[in-house]
Amino acid sequence: MLTENLIKTARDRIASAHSITVLTGAGISADSGVPTFRGEGGLWKQFRAEELATPEAFESHPEIVWEWYHWRRQIISEKRPNPAHEALVSLENACPSFTLITQNVDGLHPLAGSRKIIELHGSLWRMRCMRCGRITEKRSLELPRLPHCDLCRSLLRPDVVWFGEAINPLHLKKSLEACQGGGVFLVIGTSGIVQPAASFASIAKEHGAFTIEINRVDSEIADRDLLLIGRASEVVPQLIHANH
Ligand code: APR
């Protein structure tokens, strides 16, 4: 059970912050029923990441990789944002200097109404042409088993960042800028294992931010000033809505 004074400290820090940057991971969507990657029931417990989430895997068997993404799109198409996603939209509307950096590709933050968002690892709902690079967004599930580009007819891939691939340089630049604004840095529902996101809290702290982590258990995130143990969907609204 979280002590009231921990929540109050976090809430006061957020309420008085001139700038707020938030980093989210799969844990924020767990309460929407979206499987996380690690921990109990995690995707990497059921599937081998190197066989599904790498450029080499897609090169050698694109149909199997697309089948996995079609399955993930199907599962996530039935899920809705939870109170944690919604609380971050309220926070974005209340704080002029706000940036949300998400590692999640489930699209639940934009669906909840987040606009000042960097989808660092891409999105399940976007596809990119392997040849001409054209990006299309399609939330409908009616997709061919192996989608092809309307323009050049080449094979499309999911517009997500796979293991071994670089983050979009513009997304990285904007994320690092958002980590250097001081104020408050909130880390929600990430194991803090995958770089570069895992280092963002330390960078924020080096630039004077007060760092607050919300997780169900301890994580690898270093340099946090406050650790609030609990479900994101229960804790995050308490930090943002005074009447909680
Ligand atoms: N509330 C808060 N935190 C939660 C909840 C919850 N209800 N449920 C789980 N968590 C926490 C777990 O304790 C864990 O620390 O969320 C974290 C999920 O960790 P991961 O499954 O490793 O997900 P994430 O940190 O987002 O992974 C980062 O790894 O596989 C890649 O690209 C993929 O973006 C992903 C990246």
Automatic annotation (TrEMBL):
Documented EC number(s): 2.3.1.286
Keywords: Cytoplasm, Metal-binding, NAD, Transferase, Zinc
GO molecular function: histone deacetylase activity, NAD-dependent; metal ion binding; NAD+ binding; protein-malonyllysine demalonylase activity; protein-succinyllysine desuccinylase activity
InterPro entries listed in its UniProt record: DHS-like_NAD/FAD-binding_dom (IPR029035), NAD-dep_sirtuin_deacylases (IPR050134), Sirtuin (IPR003000), Sirtuin_cat_small_dom_sf (IPR026591), Sirtuin_class_III (IPR027546), Ssirtuin_cat_dom (IPR026590)
SUPFAM superfamilies: DHS-like NAD/FAD-binding domain
Catalytic reactions on record: N(6)-acetyl-L-lysyl-[protein] + NAD(+) + H2O = 2''-O-acetyl-ADP-D-ribose + nicotinamide + L-lysyl-[protein]; N(6)-succinyl-L-lysyl-[protein] + NAD(+) + H2O = 2''-O-succinyl-ADP-D-ribose + nicotinamide + L-lysyl-[protein]
GO cellular component: cytoplasm
Protein origin, superkingdom: Bacteria
Localisation: Cytoplasm
Gene3D superfamilies noted in UniProt: SIR2/SIRT2 'Small Domain, TPP-binding domain
Binding sites annotated in the UniProt record for NAD(+): 25-44, 103-106, 189-191, 215-217, 232
Coarse class of the protein's main subcellular location: cytoplasm
Positions annotated as active site in the UniProt record: 121 (proton acceptor)
Binding residues annotated for substrate, in chain numbering: 69, 72
Domain Deacetylase sirtuin-type, residue spans: 1-244
Positions of Zn(2+) binding: 129, 132, 149, 152
Family: Belongs to the sirtuin family. Class III subfamily.
Function: NAD-dependent lysine deacetylase and desuccinylase that specifically removes acetyl and succinyl groups on target proteins. Modulates the activities of several proteins which are inactive in their acylated form.
Domain notes for this protein: 2 residues (Tyr-69 and Arg-72) present in a large hydrophobic pocket are probably involved in substrate specificity. They are important for desuccinylation activity, but dispensable for deacetylation activity.
The protein's name in its UniProt record: NAD-dependent protein deacylase
Gene name linked to the record: cobB
